[in-house]
Amino acid sequence: MPFFWKLFFSTTLISSVFFSLGSFYITYSGFDNALQREIQSIEQENDVMISSLQRELESSLKASAYSADSEIVGYLEKYGLPSDQIAAMMEGQFYSSISDIDAWIDETVGSMTVSLYGEVIPFRISDGHAKIIAQNQWINMEDNLLTKLDDENVRGCQIVPYGGDYFVHCASAVSIFGNTLYIENYRMITNVFDNRIRQQRSGMYITAIMLVSMAAVSFVVSQWLTQPIRELSAASRQFSEENFSERVTIRSHDEIGGLAADFNAMADRVEETVEQLRDSAERQEAFVNSFAHELKTPLTSIIGYADMLRSKPLSPEQVIEYSDTIFQEGQRLEAMSMKLMELIVLKKQDFEMQTIPAKKLLQSVETTVRPIFKEYHIKFYARYQNDLLLVEPDLIKTVCINLLDNARKSVAEGGSVWLLGKKTEERYIISVVDNGRGMEQDELHKITHPFYMVDKSRARLQGGAGLGLAISSEIATLHDSALEFKSALGKGTRVSLRLPTRR
Amino acid sequence: MIQILVVEDERAISNLIKINLDDAGYQCTCVYDGRAAAELLELHDFDLILLDVMLPEIDGYELMEYIRPQAIPVIFLTAKSNVTDKVKGLKLGAEDYITKPFEIIELLARVETILRRCGKNQSVIEIHDVVIDTDSRIVTKNGQPVKLTKKEYDLLLLFVYNKNIALFRERIYEKVWGDYYLDDSRTVDLHVQRMRKKLGWEDKIVPVYKIGYRLEG
């Protein structure tokens, strides 16, 4: 399941569950309160009932007692007895005078109505033997409330559904003159239940609306939250399809924004590394191709001429000519393999740098090459300042001789070549300058590639394998430097090398 | 006479090809770079071009564009042995390719095959007193038909196309039987001797000590 849907469903689900729980709680607590209120008021009504009944009975009692013994009371009052003492005294007499208490109560309250706040309260009074003594507007709901009352629970309330309505039924057991009377009353509370249903229904509607709007909101929010993740994922897919230039836009400064930034940083690094690997693979392939070509060219001659020697009748001159070709091509192969060895060794080996005066080093170079320039009738000038170099002397000598040899090959007879050594603040610069043929600008970055030759056929004639500058460049790299070329076609070339010093 | 243009910048290889093609009876012209080849193609018509891939100025693949409209068959000479380069050459319209280094017999066989495929070779070869009609595969000596088996006929053609070249038993076996030669096999000798006898060429196809046989021209 996509993260988007997880986010969407979880927010929607959680909010709707909480909302419906909330509305459920509100509905039921409202209902409960209303019910409690109803119960309270019915208990109050019940109290009113009881007190009215007692009052009624008392007044009836007083009336009859007074009428029967008014003379005695009057007499007693005359003697200054308090009226309540007189009443107590009279009560005993009254009891004795009333033989059938039930009949008396019936007579007294049979026609009683009780109203509270202008509303008539339905009631029923019955005795312990389920005999109804008095009732008013009573609906018999036939519940079992009376059976639940005993000495401890003298009052009980019960909600009774009856005839499509709801009633709260309240009953109290009251002891009057030793007789237990049950006083019951009820209230119709259908509206409380109706209210609950209404609230439940509106709660459901609101919950449904909430659900829909929450879904809409959380859809938008989820979209908004997962958008950067989707972008990241799209970018990653692009990456896996080797489209390494893909980046994501950073929209926020939160964790996802951080992830996007990290992704971009990683992408930069990967792109760079892949580029390097590709470059090196390309160089490797170019090297292998060139190497195959350079190896197969002399081999083709050697094999071809040897094949002729072994399978054709040849004149003695032809034999000499063909074997000479084989010999020369063999030498070329040997020279190339030696150079190649050098190049490989340079890449593998650690060289120890030595301190050597520049003058000493360049002097030895000068003495090596001067006779060669003389032989080719090329003017050779050497000008160098002294300094203390920190180099591998043999390697630097190789580079110098190599560069000078290249210069020699590029100038015609009567041309000039310079070997210059100059002190600068940090490094010592050796330059080889010639006024020879020069090169085109777009050749300059290729000339240090192994086997690269600007003019292949001429280089061949001069015995080149196209490895000299590759080796020199490798040596320059070992000295933390690089060959710097400046050249103009027809005007000449300047090659410089910045060497480390020890001062 | 069949005219072949060799475009190869390496003098030694160029000479090698020229010597052998001339000996085989073709007329060979050598140029050493692509530009010279393009210029020469403006002026002359050739039957076949042997073209090196890595050339100065204009490389072999580029030169193919000049050659294609003229419909001259091309054999590439290439030092690269990877398949994509070969495919590239063939896709550009080359008939065949030869990888360096190559043996002379290989070179001659390829040249011969391509010329025959393009219908530029003579279909009737006359050599000494024998006439070979390569179309009908009929061999006659002094007007009389000579019955040769398939292997003997293939042997004869191999000798004819490599006249004056000593053919090693291994190469004969590989070329005619199309299989690797086993040291002790007398098959080559038996077939050569039988073919020689049928043609009465005992003095023309001579044994070369320790090597094999040579047809003298």
Brief write-up:
Chain A has 503 residues and is α+β, with helices and mostly antiparallel strands. Helices cover 59% and strands 18% of the residues of chain A. In chain A, β1 (115-116) and β2 form a beta hairpin.
How is this structure best described in words?
With 503 residues, chain A is α+β, with helices and mostly antiparallel strands. Chain A contains eleven helices and 14 strands. In chain A, helix 1 (3-78) crosses helix 2 and helix 6 (255-311) packs antiparallel against helix 7. The model of chain A has no long low-confidence stretch (mean pLDDT 82). With 217 residues, chain B is α/β, with parallel strands linked by helices. In chain B, helix 4 (83-91) links the parallel strand 4 and strand 5. Chain B is globular, with a radius of gyration of 19 Å. The chains are: A alpha+beta (503), B alpha/beta (217). Chains A and B meet through helix 6, helix 7 and helix 10 of A and helix 1 and strand 10 of B.
